[in-house]
Specification:
It is rod-shaped and about 140 Å long. The protein contains ten helices and two strands. The protein is mainly alpha-helical. The protein has helices spanning about 5-10, 30-40, 55-75, 90-95, 105-115, 120-125, 140-145, 145-155, 190-200, 210-220; strands spanning about 160-165, 165-175. It has two domains: about 60-95; about 105-235, Cytochrome c-like domain (Cytochrome Bc1 Complex, Chain D, domain 2, Orthogonal Bundle), CATH 1.10.760.10. A hairpin with a 2-residue loop joins strand 1 (about 160-165) and strand 2. The structure holds heme C. The site of heme C has 29 residues, from helix 6, helix 7, helix 8, strand 1 and strand 2. Heme C binds near residues 123, 154, 160, 172 and 173.
């Protein structure tokens, strides 16, 4: 029976129901009990207190926290914003912050390599020099030999004929030290760095040269204003 037919069977003073459910009363006692019975069957009775977390879950979470803590402690980089700089070195940064800058031996040589950019034009990146014009530094007895002589060459320069690895050169090596008339005026530290570098590059293996040693030689030769000659350096061979 459709709604239209239903409507036509009712007496005219009775309003037609809008919908079947509109006629029904709200929930009665019976229907409430019925619903509660279903709920009771399907859901557990609520109880006081709490259920403990399953042990394995507790284990997993504790392990995660432990691993994360170790990771953070290990890689925190002192929470320094500079930590994203790939050259950042927490130990060196601390040393720099407290007192004068102290370079590690590797940093010292690396700095020397940068200074060597000035020497490249003549002695070449290969350290082999230019035949007949600029003497080689690789396997040179001047570089590997007595540091007293080598430091003097760098500080004041070198002039006139010299022998390197059996060949004679006759040119002018400029003065690099803070000496009267010297063009480059490099600090003792820069000189020590570049000398340490050329003593350890291209297969050279000679002891490093310290800034203190350069300062000592500079002091000893304070009166000198001219480049050295090979003969003058004989005592330091
Ligand atoms: C303008 C070119 C020039 C530059 C720059 C130069 N040199 Fe030299 N160097 C020479 C010449 C030329 C000689 C040979 C001097 C002579 O004949 O008396 C020489 C000689 C030397 C020697 C001794 C001989 C040998 O081969 O071992 C050393 C060591 C040396 N130079 C190191 C350096 C270093 C380190 C630098 C950079 C800090 C440098 N030179 C920059 C031209 C240069």
């Amino acid at each position: 029976m459709s709604d239209d037919q239903k409507k036509s069977n009712l007496p005219p003073h009775v309003p037609a129901p809008q919908h079947e459910r509109a006629e029904q009363a709200g929930a009665n006692d019976q229907s409430i009990q019925k619903v509660h019975a279903i709920l009771l069957r399907e859901k557990e009775e609520p109880s006081e207190g709490f259920t403990p977390m399953p042990l394995f879950l507790l284990g997993i979470i504790s392990t995660m926290i432990l691993v994360c803590s170790i990771y953070v402690v290990h890689y925190r980089g002192d929470f320094d914003p500079l930590v994203y700089d790939h050259r950042y070195d927490a130990v060196a940064a601390k040393a720099a912050a407290s007192g004068p800058k102290v370079l590690t031996p590797e940093q010292f040589v690396a700095a020397g390599k940068r200074q060597y950019a000035t020497c490249v034009a003549c002695h070449q990146a290969s350290g082999l020099g230019v035949a007949g014009v600029y003497p080689p530094l690789a396997a040179s007895e001047w570089v590997l030999g007595n540091e007293e002589r080598l430091i003097r060459v760098l500080l004041h320069g070198l002039n006139g004929p010299i022998q390197v690895k059996g060949n004679t050169y006759n040119g002018l090596m400029p003065a690099f030290g803070k000496v009267p008339g010297g063009g480059y005026n490099w600090s003792n530290e820069r000189i020590a760095q570049v000398l340490t570098y050329i003593r350890q590059e291209w297969g050279n293996t000679a002891a490093p040269i310290t800034t203190e040693k350069v300062a000592e030689v500079l002091k000893a030769e304070a009166a000198r204003t001219k480049p050295w000659t090979q003969d003058e350096l004989k005592p330091f061979e």
